[in-house]
Amino acid sequence: MVREDHRSEIGLKRVYDAPEPGDGVRVLVDRLWPRGVRKDALKMDLWLKDVAPSPDLRHWFGHDPVRWEEFQARYRRELEAGNPEIAQLGALAGREKVTLLYAAHDLVHNHALVLRDFLRGA
Question: Which InterPro entries match (predicted)?
């Protein structure tokens, strides 16, 4: 039996956006709980903190677009080093539709974009 590859079906959504039936498995990929969101209010299936950038990298980046290119390279190195949660998310993304949830306000310069691209290439 040929397994369907769902890696191209990795969506991105801010935690503040309403869930939709087509989201699939909703995975929070931030290390810190999003501000202003009650834990019982966020519809998510998993919270994988360790797929987020390390605290040192997150602090260094500080969501500064000037550091975006270097941030991507450093975060990719962290992802390539791997950990159990990255492996878990990669396996999940290979089986079914996944939506990565993140809290960053910047839709263009955030770690979820890098993570999605990494997972698609895995």
Answer: YeaO-like
